[in-house]
Every structure is written in C-alpha cells, then in structure tokens.
Design a protein that fits this description.
- By secondary structure, the protein is of the alpha/beta class.
- It has a domain of 122 residues.
- Helix content is 35%, strand content 17%.
- It is built from 7 helices and 8 strands, in the order αββααββαβββαααβ.
- α4 links the parallel β4 and β5.
- The chain is globular and about 60 Å long.
- It binds zinc ion (ZN).
- The site of zinc ion has 7 residues, from α3 and α4.
C-alpha cells in the first residue's frame, strides 16, 4: 500500500515504477551489510520533498545506468561517483541512489548536462556510463510550460498546470521499461573531471568495508 501523501495511487500502480536494491556498510568502519535495502520512489520523494518530472526522470535514468553497472541488481552505494547538472530534483536523486556526496568530490556538477542526463562511474572498476533520456520521450509541453513560468509572465493557474504536466510525464515514464526511455553508453575514453566542490577531505566511513 503506497503512501498517497507521497505519490498518487495511479502512479503507485504503474507497471514500471523503478525500485532499487542498495548495498551499504553495516556501520561506520563496518564491513558490508550482507542485507541489501530496498529504495522506492516514495523514499526519493521523502528526501527530495516532492514528486516531480525531474525526480522520476532521474530515477528512470539511473535505474537504466545502474542496471548496466550492477548486473546482479544490487547497487553498491560505497562504490559510485556521479556527474549531474545542478537541478535540485535530479541532483537529489543522484546523491540518494549512488551515495556520492559533493563534499567528498564524488558528486560533480556539470551545467552542460540536461535533465535526466548523468555520467556514472563504478569507482572500483573504472567502468563509466553515460545515460540520457531518449528525446522522443520528453513531452514538449512540459518544457514550454516551464519556460512560461520562468519568464515571469504567467497566471497562478499556470503553476498548477505545470504540476499536472510533470506528474503526467512521471506517469508516462513509469509506464515503460527504463531501457525504453533512456540511452546508455559506456564511456571508454572519459577523463573524470576535477571535483566542483573544494577539497574538504575524503569519505572515511567506508574504509574498512572489505576487512576480513
Ligand atoms: Zn523536484
């Protein structure tokens, strides 16, 4: 039973709503927790604050990218770095699903990326994938309505219309397999950029995850 405060029932019933199995350590300096956790869209909404087109785009795009990097279906959140644009929505999902933090240099911001576009790297192997939305999936009216709001020339009803359009887009994305909504490519010659956040130290809590 979904929490209708977080996502509407019709979306909860969608056939391809992304879910994620994630792997973390048991505690600070702990080894890997053998039990994966399940992350669902409602968790992303709790963290981000609202359901929106950008949240669902990012969830679908990262589902497709992480399927390639983790074919066993369990995402290791101690082993990922990501590049996203500076969207509050997509950036929040990137952080939550990968465990990559900007303050440790693992989440890099590239203003040239579009919504639903990410470069994801499995740090231990160096495997790097580029994921983006298929252009034909994105509804033009969403962008047109967003531009209208950002222009400042709009009526109050336009804000509600934008919300409806985004939710319809979220429903569309959840109606198809992520592989149908996205394009994923391996990047073999990609040089990882310098962190966008100043160097404040590195992440330490996972240092002993492989202790035996
Ligand atoms: Zn959002």
């Amino acid at each position: 039973m979904s929490d209708t405060l977080l996502i509407p029932d019709w979306l909860a019933r969608a056939p391809h709503l992304p879910r994620f199995q994630v792997r973390d350590t048991l505690h600070k300096y702990g080894r890997y927790d053998p039990r994966p956790k399940t992350v669902i869209i409602e968790d992303l909404v709790r963290f981000h604050g609202h359901l929106c087109g950008g949240l669902m785009e990012a969830a679908v795009a990262l589902r497709a990218a992480l399927d390639v990097l983790f074919p066993d279906g369990v995402i290791d959140r101690t082993d990922l770095a990501i590049i996203s644009n500076n969207s509050a929505c997509g950036g929040d999902v990137a952080t939550y699903l990968t465990g990559a933090r900007a303050r440790f240099g693992a989440h890099i911001i590239d203003l040239g990326l579009s919504g639903g576009e990410f470069i994801v790297r499995k740090v231990s192997t160096g495997e790097t994938v580029h994921v983006r939305m298929r252009p034909e999936v994105y509804p033009r009216e969403v962008k047109a309505q967003m531009r209208k709001l950002e222009s400042g020339d709009f009526m109050a009803e336009d804000v509600d219309l934008f919300g409806d359009l985004q939710w319809a887009y979220a429903g569309l994305l959840a109606s198809m397999p992520p592989s149908q909504a996205t394009l994923v490519d391996f990047l073999t010659e990609f040089s990882w950029p310098e962190p966008t956040c100043q160097n404040l130290g590195r992440r330490r809590d996972n240092d002993f995850k492989d202790a035996s």
